[in-house]
């Protein structure tokens, strides 16, 4: 189905992805060893004896030469061994896997909201370039890019929960007393639909509302800007003018030919935004007590849980690498010329 150039390009991208992931693992290791503090002391406690501390350092491998520690860390990371959390007492990998569906649910709905609203707004702003609608959309994008996540979340909680009382308490994924649906995907809204549990679906959707609005509004800004800039450039191209001269409907030209040619730039922004959503969840999850990997990382930072923080950073880095790899493949599907580049 695909030629030799396709597989060469894909193999090159896979190799770059592996190298990038190894670089991220090394960077995390170096940063955690440069920072002041002793992980063994954190795990043993401030009242531990020197003998206990030395034994724990030996158990954790901290008394070995730094290159040997790095080599072991890389090997363990690729084996899925990210250490043990000092807060939960469980393997970090198991903690992250348990909390990942909550973060994924929040990220997916936030990204869907941003794409379904931000891209059409950007396209319509480009079509009406210079008009009042274009100026309003640009101001919305500026507001989304400049609004701090924590401030926006606090304002939404204050208005919709404290003042109006129409939003549920910003704590967790379900109301108190509502039983979680049987776990199939880990996404409560999807599992509730599959289990035909209307009560759990309504509760899960209600608890998603404010976090999704907070995160979705902020990540909408780059999508609006990129879609407007791309469409503004494409609508003045010769092939668009030719399409109009052939009598094609305005809707077909804009939403068919124009948007399809703008997809390359939009895919790049979507990839960047998706990685940001995973990392930006730390603030949103801490604010709404959302039990995902972001809150896990926040608790790790405040509790000096080194292994938990390292595991979170590596997971976010791996997500970035995977998303960029998928986008590279989509580039080839959208524009075959990329395979020969």
Description:
The structure is a single chain. Helix 1 packs across helix 4 (66-78) and helix 1 runs antiparallel to helix 13 (306-334). The chain has a domain at 93-305: Orthogonal Bundle (MetI-like fold), CATH 1.10.3720.10. The protein has 341 residues and is mainly α. The protein is built from 13 helices and no strands. The mean pLDDT is 83. Helix content is 75%, strand content 0%.
CATH superfamily of the domain at 93-305: MetI-like
Principal-axis shape equals globular
- Fraction of residues in helix: over 70%
Question: Average pLDDT value?
Answer: 83
Most strands sheet: none
Fill in the CATH topology of the domain at 93-305: MetI-like fold
**Beta-strand content:** under 5%
Return Rg in Å. 24 Å
Overall CATH architecture of the domain at 93-305: Orthogonal Bundle
Highest-level CATH class of the domain at 93-305: Mainly Alpha
- Report the end-to-end length measured between terminal Cα atoms: 19 Å
For this structure, the quaternary state is single chain
Along the chain, the helix and strand elements come as HHHHHHHHHHHHH
The chain-level structural class is: mainly alpha
Count of strand segments: 0
> Count of DSSP helices?
13
Q: Which spans have pLDDT < 50 for at least 5 consecutive residues? A: none
